[in-house]
Amino acid sequence: MISNLVDLKDIFFSLASKNKTIAIVTHQNPDGDGLPASFALKKILAQRRIYSKVILEEEPPEIYDFLDVKKNCEVLSESMEFELIILVDCHEKKRVGKNSILIEKANGIIAIDHHPAGEVIPCSNTFIDTKIVSAGAIIYRLFAEEIEYFPKDVKNYLGKAFYTTILNDTDNFMNANVDKLTFEICAELMETGITPGNITEKFLLNKSASEMKFIGEVLSTIELHYNGKVMFLNSTLKMLQDNNLSSEATTKLTRWVKGTKGVKVFVYFREIGDNKYRLSLRSNFINVNAIAVKFDGGGHTKASGCEMNGDFAAVKEIILKEIGVQL
After folding, report:
1. Which residue, 102, 111, 186, 271, could crosslink 91 as a Cys pair with Cβ 3.0–4.6 Å?
2. pLDDT tens for each residue of 125-175
């Protein structure tokens, strides 16, 4: 494990300069932290004439079009092989999904994360800081001095990418992880020429009428348990199909119920296949990560996720029992 940013930077450029082929990888179902942070890292490396590729399991969501998403990443193929793998916003092989085949072929691995330490990849150069708001914020602090001298357009792109990572992992500054350093970083990002309101609109708002209708249908599924302390809501593949939407529409659904009076735990169940569900767990009162890791998921103490197989009623019962233990 790497203990500080100075050592991380030395190791980072030592390995990046020695290896000719570099892949930047984030976790399965990439979010607004891991993906924009990966784009930013690719751009920073390019300023040093170190070229890399951001590799995803599948085509990227359109929500990141304002960061030129299609130009900045490639979809995994089995023939791909890279000497150095840089993991962003994750450090466990199991969270990388199909991209784990790249890890097996690599000569070196660097992992930059802010999630609680789990199964660190053997022989990897791993840096974890759970106190910082996002993986993007770690990368920004790592290269802040260099960024100051980058061309104006590059600085602006990086500002948008890093600000997006903070928007994502604070849920627009609503989460308990917001601290003084968060605002200090945002103030510095303002110097890159970003317009926060514009980024917020493109990333968190900008919904079509069909998406708003879908959100309404999901909210109509709300169930309360434990005397209103636990809220469940769910979406089905049919809901998406009826509204002519892709799975991208399920992103950040829990933000629509956050702050509901009396509710301490939120769980959003997304149907992703036959008897297969992806769960988003949110709470400021219990450790939802402790629940997610039991089902090979992970995340943060207050925001985590996992996938489960089985009958929907049975899945809900299992999760409700796990929540009950902590409540």
Report:
1. 111
2. 999 999 999 999 999 999 999 999 999 999 999 999 999 999 999 999 998
Q: Distances from the Cα of 93 to the Cαs of 102, 198, 251, in angstroms?
A: 10, 35, 23
d(CA 93, CA 96): 5
Q: Where in the chain are the domains?
A: 5-202, 209-326
For residue 169 the two structure tokens come to: 């992992």
Cα(111)–Cα(88) distance, integer angstroms: 6
| 95 secondary structure, DSSP code | G
Could you say which of 3.40.50.10240, 3.10.310.30, 3.30.70.100, 3.10.280.10 is the CATH number of the domain covering 209-326? 3.10.310.30
Give pLDDT tens digits for 79-134: 999 999 999 999 999 899 999 999 999 999 999 999 998 899 999 999 999 999 99
pTM: 0.89
Q: Rounded to the nearest 5°, which phi and psi values hold at 160?
A: -65, -45
Give the residues across from 88 on adjacent strands.
112
Distance of alpha carbon 206 from alpha carbon 11, whole angstroms: 40
Residue 147: burial class (beta carbons within 10 Å; 0-12, 13-18, 19+): buried
Tell me: the pLDDT tens digits for 281-303? 999 999 999 999 999 988 889 99
Q: Which residue has the tokens 């802040």?
A: 144
